[in-house]
Design a protein that fits this description.
The complex is a heterodimer of chains A (304) and B (192). Chain A is an alpha+beta fold and 304 residues long. Chain A has a 6-stranded antiparallel beta barrel with strand order 1-2-5-4-3-13. Chain A has a 6-stranded antiparallel beta barrel with strand order 6-7-8-12-11-9. Chain A is rod-shaped and about 130 Å long. Chain B is built from 7 helices and no strands. The chains are: A alpha+beta (304), B mainly alpha (192). Chains A and B meet through α1 and α2 of A and α1, α3 and α4 of B.
Chain lengths: 304, 192
């Protein structure tokens, strides 16, 4: 075992160094910035600076090596995090864009119903498009509302325009051609089987609107009677019957704007091109007019 | 430890190198949020081989150098490293351990004690800001890294200090080996 001298020496050494440390600590805290220990520290740092600089340069490759390894790990983790964030943001963006698109279309539908001449009391039911026909020849959509919601065959369907803020509030898109309990099929006015009795406003010329198959941005108004049609005039459902039986479409539903009006010398009727108000290429939300409304005149539908 | 100008010189150079290495290199190498604290390892190694008196003296000098060079509050590192050096030296003196892997445990304990004591002293002195829980992670990582580096550092320090050591730890270990049971008849039963 140790003798008492060694023990005393050991304890004395500990006491001395602890006391020295506390003294240095106390003095350092007690003195001003220009005091002895602060000055000593500054001097030491100046003296050590070249050594530290040299050591830092010498150790830079080692630091770079470790840094590279660390960066690689960090980059992998960061890459993973960023990927998940991109996925999340992409989903959020898609959701926001969908919501914005829906809002635009709903705003257009609201604006459409407030248009002058639009039939009143039609009890519209909003529905979401759940599928579309894949070919241009059979232009139809399926909606998520059906018989249990009050949807019936031959009810007219309207949709918002592509830019309601610019006046493209929307218009007629088609009619319900079949219905199940929860869904319905809507045949669009771009389908080859559709014809809609129409009237040019305000000239009063009447005719039948038919599709230009393959081009949903273009409709044709045929068998125009009752006056000359000029460009940029509005065409709406006329409410006239063009076939036997009651008309399907109440008077006053906007269809489109006249984009081009030809008069061939050999033709009896004027051939009028319409640009449909409804954005038929990308419909997400439609409204089915479940009641006929209060219009006194109705338009006929069917092949002329 | 033999007190001589040579031993002072060796320990002084060792501490200076350790401080420079720590400040210029290792402190800037972040590994899993922590970094190697080689100065604590050096103090622990000197204390382990030199004893408690040499340990607390080395701890004080190392802390003083570190505070001088780093511009930290002077006296804090000295106080804590003095305690670490003394503790490791006393452990060696009391237990007289001989296992070859003991430096790993000693380094881990010394580093853990250092970071905890340093944090405690810093809290008592001038830390007024809120402290992130991440300091706990850093302390744990630093302790583990130091434990990993313990064997090479302790070996290097022992080789450097061997001329100044009263008893070479390797010699002690050799003397404790059991007597030979095999070999030439003349050597059996002898501690060789």
């Amino acid at each position: 075992m140790y003798d008492s001298k060694v023990v005393r020496r050991r304890r004395a050494a500990l006491a001395v160094f602890v006391a020295l440390s506390i003294a240095v600590l106390t003095a350092y805290f007690g003195e001003s910035g220009g005091g002895f220990f602060h000055a000593l520290q500054r001097g030491a740092q100046e003296a050590f600076a070249p050594i530290e600089t040299g050591a830092s340069r010498a150790l830079k490759p080692v630091r770079d090596l470790f840094g590279w390894a660390g960066d690689t790990f960090d980059a992998k983790k960061e890459n993973k995090d960023l990927r998940s964030e991109v996925e999340r943001l992409r989903a959020a963006l898609a959701e926001a864009q969908t919501a914005q698109r829906d809002a635009t279309q709903l705003r257009g539908l609201v604006g459409l119903k407030e248009e002058d001449g639009f039939p009143r009391g039609t009890a519209p039911i909003a529905a979401r498009v759940i599928s579309r026909s894949p070919t241009v020849w059979y232009s139809s959509i399926h909606i998520d509302k059906g018989e249990s919601d009050g949807v019936r065959v031959n009810q007219p369907v309207i949709a918002a325009g592509s830019d309601p803020d610019a006046g493209e509030v929307g218009g007629l898109v088609g009619k319900v051609t079949s219905v199940t309990a929860g869904t319905a099929e809507v045949t669009l006015i771009t389908d080859a089987s559709i014809g809609v009795g129409a009237q040019v406003m305000p000239s009063g010329a009447t005719g039948v609107v038919r599709p230009a198959v393959g081009n949903p941005r273009d409709l044709l108004m045929e068998f125009v009677e009752g006056g000359r049609v000029t460009e940029n005039t509005t065409v709406a459902t006329s409410g006239f019957t063009i076939a036997k039986g009651e008309s399907l479409f109440p008077r006053g539903i906007p269809i489109g704007r006249v984009s081009k009006a030809d008069l061939n010398e050999v033709d009896i009727y004027q051939r009028v091109h319409l640009k449909p108000y409804a954005d038929l290429k990308s419909i997400d939300i439609v409204q089915v007019l479940t009641r006929r409304g209060t219009a006194s005149q109705t338009a006929g539908v069917g092949l002329p | 430890m033999i007190v001589s100008p040579g031993s002072f010189l060796r320990v002084g150079i060792l501490l200076l190198l350790a401080v420079m290495l720590q400040l210029s290199g290792l402190s800037q190498l972040s590994i899993l949020g922590g970094h190697v604290d080689v100065l604590v390892l050096v103090v622990a190694a000197v204390s382990y081989y030199g004893g408690s008196v040499a340990g607390c003296a080395t701890g004080f000098a190392a802390g003083f150098l570190l505070d001088l060079a780093s511009g930290a509050t002077m006296g804090v590192s000295s106080l804590v490293l003095t305690a670490v050096g003394y503790g490791v030296g006393r452990f060696r003196e009391v237990r007289d351990p001989s296992h070859g892997l003991l430096p790993v445990a000693v380094a881990a304990a010394a580093t853990g004690g250092f970071v905890v004591a340093f944090a405690a002293v810093s809290f008592m002195l001038d830390v007024g800001a809120s402290v992130s829980p991440l300091v706990i992670r850093d302390a744990i990582v630093t302790t583990l890294l130091n434990a990993l580096l313990a064997l090479p550092v302790f070996t290097g320090v022992r080789r450097l200090l061997r001329p100044a050591l009263k008893v070479d730890p390797l010699e002690l270990r050799r003397r404790r080996r059991p007597p030979r049971e095999t070999g030439p008849l003349g050597l059996r039963g002898l501690e060789v």
